[in-house]
Design goal:
This protein is an alpha/beta fold. It has seven helices and six strands; from the N terminus they run H-E-H-H-E-H-H-E-E-E-E-H-H.
Length: 207
């Protein structure tokens, strides 16, 4: 297994009590200034696209549980991050979401319908590309888990990954390069924009 070199400030740190890891905190700063973001997610809707109610459902699903104050703080932080997509000069953003994440009804039927509606709206936002990787594919480049790729104004390429025990911000060119290859493959395996739009329309009709 390849060992990814992390930034000195981005080594894996255990998540405790809803606090961001050092890697996670540094990622938040880099994400805010990035001019390009590529995000693969397989178990939940990407944070930049979550509704407030869906985010609450995600954090309430955590084991051990968060207390109400921690959940409120985490949700507020997640919704605040979404301002990245609406800044004066927004980044170019690509999302690939495994269909499995779209089939879970976290929070219940109303929360699910609102979340799918928000995804459908973002399909038509300039500068945002949203693709669904459907179930039933015979190959899947993202089985090792979700990850995010960033390009900064200094043209530095970074990758970020979270696990159940911590997070890691990667600057090593070899590590970032492998994840970039994975993302390019995921995009070829996923539905195109028109097909994704049609799938979300079907899901809205079923919600």
């Amino acid at each position: 297994m390849m060992r990814h070199s992390a930034l000195p400030y981005g080594r894996s740190v255990r998540v405790r009590g809803g606090e961001r890891t050092r890697a996670g905190g540094e990622f938040d700063l880099r994400e805010r200034e990035a001019f390009a973001i590529s995000w693969y997610e397989g178990s939940a809707i990407p944070g930049l696209l979550q509704t407030e109610a869906y985010a609450q459902a995600v954090f309430r699903s955590r084991v051990p549980v968060y207390d109400d104050d921690s959940i409120a703080q985490l949700v507020a932080g997640r919704i605040d991050r979404q301002s990245i997509l609406h800044r004066k000069v927004p980044p170019t953003v690509s999302f690939v979401i495994w269909e499995a994440a779209l089939r879970d009804h976290l929070g219940g039927r109303d929360v699910y319908a609102e979340q799918v509606r928000k995804l459908r709206e973002h399909v038509d936002v300039p500068g945002i590309t949203l693709q669904v990787l459907p179930l039933g594919r015979t190959s899947h480049a993202g089985l090792d888990g979700p990850f995010i790729l960033l390009e900064t104004p200094e043209y530095q390429r970074l990758a970020y990954m979270e696990t159940q025990r911590g997070s890691q911000l990667i600057a090593d060119p070899d590590g970032v390069g492998i994840l970039t290859q994975k993302y390019a493959t995921l995009r070829t395996q996923a539905l195109n924009t028109e097909e994704t739009r049609a799938m979300l329309d079907r899901l809205l009709g079923e919600a």
